Amino acid sequence: MPFNKVGSKGITDGSVATAEFADGVVTSTKLQDGAVTNDKLTNTAFTLSGTSVSLGASATFANKFVDWQSVITADGSTGTTGVSGRGYFINTTSAAHTFTLPASATRGDTIAIKDYAGTFATYNLTIARNGHNIQGVANNSLISTNRASVVLVYVDVTRGWEFVEESNVADLQGPTFITATGGTVTTSEQNFYVGISVGDIVSYTKQGESVPTYNKVSSVSSSLKSLTIDSTTSVSGICSGSLPSQTITVNDFKVVSLDVLNTKNAFLYSQLNNSKVSNLDLTGSDVVFKKSYSIAAEIS
């Protein structure tokens, strides 16, 4: 009498090998839910990006799918164009650096950047948007804090690249100003300060310099998005008055005003003898500025 059904108790463990089954005979519909447990399988885990994950378990992969590149040492002239899926250690010990985002991007593209030597505050890193928005703004980003690290992910045309992870960074959306050789200053994100005029003194810091630069405004465009600055006198160890030798991006561009340190004796007026004076002609008058010095005298 032939048998067409054999209970599981009538089969010795291991007596039926996979070779006994024709391909496709045992389908998922033939198996009871939960009948095949992990311990019945040869492999009970899989390895992903160097991490072993048990079947049925979950794992977190923080930046482990980024292909980290060898260290890039900035030289002040050569930039870097990023590639999606890669991470970049950037060394700005000797010069500033410009990192340009890819010209084309699709949702999910990822790029990571790390300050290799902790010198982004001295020599800044500029992230050039390359036609895309950065956090919804058509503006480059300037990273100027030591030990900074960021991860950018491309979203869409509206938001562009988003900073999904940030460490040791300042305001990544702060306005930046482009100062070009010859003294032309432009801003694409906002207008310059209302009321800025010819003759005003502006201040900013050139990358790699420890003292501020002071220049004088010589013209302002009608759109308030561009102005021209002239050089001033440099004072060693105090300030620079020279214009940039190349196009630079700065985020501390501002108008400066005079601060009177000694208010007790700093007056630009004189009391008149008569209180009933309607006007006063100061043509030919002199204004005298005095400064006191402490000296040591020795009697011999």
Describe the structure concisely.
The protein contains no helices and 19 strands. With 300 residues, the protein is mostly beta strands.
Structure, explained:
This protein has 300 residues and is mainly β. Among the domains are: 67-167, gp9 (Jelly Rolls, Sandwich), CATH 2.60.120; 177-256. 0% of the residues lie in helices and 26% in strands. The protein has a seven-stranded antiparallel β-sheet with strand order 18-13-14-17-16-15-19, with no helix packed on it. A hairpin with a 5-residue loop joins strand 16 (213-220) and strand 17 (226-230). The mean pLDDT is 77.
Task: Outline the secondary-structure elements.
Layout: E1 45-48, E2 51-54, E3 67-68, E4 72-73, E5 80-81, E6 86-91, E7 97-100, E8 110-115, E9 125-128, E10 141-143, E11 149-154, E12 161-167, E13 177-179, E14 184-186, E15 201-204, E16 213-220, E17 226-230, E18 248-250, E19 254-256
Parallel strand pairs: 3-6, 4-6, 5-7, 6-8, 7-9
Antiparallel strand pairs: 1-2, 8-11, 9-10, 11-12, 13-14, 13-18, 14-17, 15-16, 15-19, 16-17
Keywords:
300 residues; Jelly Rolls; 7-stranded antiparallel β-sheet; 6-stranded mixed β-sheet; 19 strands; 26% strand; rod-shaped
What is the count of DSSP helices, taking H or I runs of 4+ residues?
Answer: 0
Task: Give the tally of β-strands.
Answer: 19
Main beta sheet: 7 strands, antiparallel
pLDDT averaged over residues: 77
- Rg of Cα set: 35 Å
Task: Specify the structural class.
Answer: mainly beta
CATH architecture type of one domain:
Sandwich
H/E element order: EEEEEEEEEEEEEEEEEEE
CATH superfamily of one domain: gp9
